[in-house]
Amino acid sequence: MDINNSVALVTGANRGLGRAFAQRLLERGARKVYATARRPETVDLPGVEVLRLDIADPASVRAAAAAAPDASLLINNAGISTGTDLVTGSLDAVRHELETNMFGHLGMIREFAPALARNGGGAIVNVLSAMSWFGVKGANAYHLTKAAAWAMTNGVRLELAEQGTLVTAVHLGLADTDMAAGWPVDKIAPSDLADAALNGVEAGSAEVLADQWSRDVKSRLPLTPEEFNAAMDRALAALTAT
């Protein structure tokens, strides 16, 4: 699809990657950009149409779909990381991450799929992570939710192909946002991530590996679990040592 003249809805558009997506969509000629956030007053980008949206609240998702019936591009960006492990961490926190990072995205897709079909098929972008493929102590709930979201993305891609909807999975290592502020390492700029994702949509790509980190991690998937974990330990040690 062509980003120019599209009608896009971006979740979590008040900061970070979501704000960058909304801004680049406007700059690339989108006819309308719905910028959504749980607190709409925090959206400060001129030229967007602001909507209140909590993707973990089904009623809020339904209201957003009703308010944006002309959407042709859905950017599922909103997400959380609670820093929770699976065995010793709060099970409520694990569930909260799943409700947001996987079920929240799925709920958006289910509500917006009919509108996308009416509007010519359109496209969905799910912002995932290289952590779809590996865990880290202190953030294994996040790994679980992104792995589940990756599987969900692959499933809905098959289900929505008949109506002509492209479903693009976007993976990245770290972006220069508040969520990654504590990591003193090289990070992809939010605008570069947004451009990589939108370029992938225009190219009809099912998957975008937005940085070298995500490409390196995925290249290790054929390894045995022992080999993969050892390679990731070395990579993480090198990353934190720089």
UniProtKB/TrEMBL annotation:
Gene3D superfamilies: NAD(P)-binding Rossmann-like Domain. It comes from the Bacteria. InterPro entries: NAD(P)-bd_dom_sf, SDR_fam. Keywords: Oxidoreductase. Pfam families: adh_short. Coiled coil: none annotated. Signal peptide: none annotated. The keyword Oxidoreductase applies. Belongs to the short-chain dehydrogenases/reductases (SDR) family. This is SDR family oxidoreductase. The lineage of its organism: Bacteria, Bacillati, Actinomycetota, Actinomycetes, Kitasatosporales.
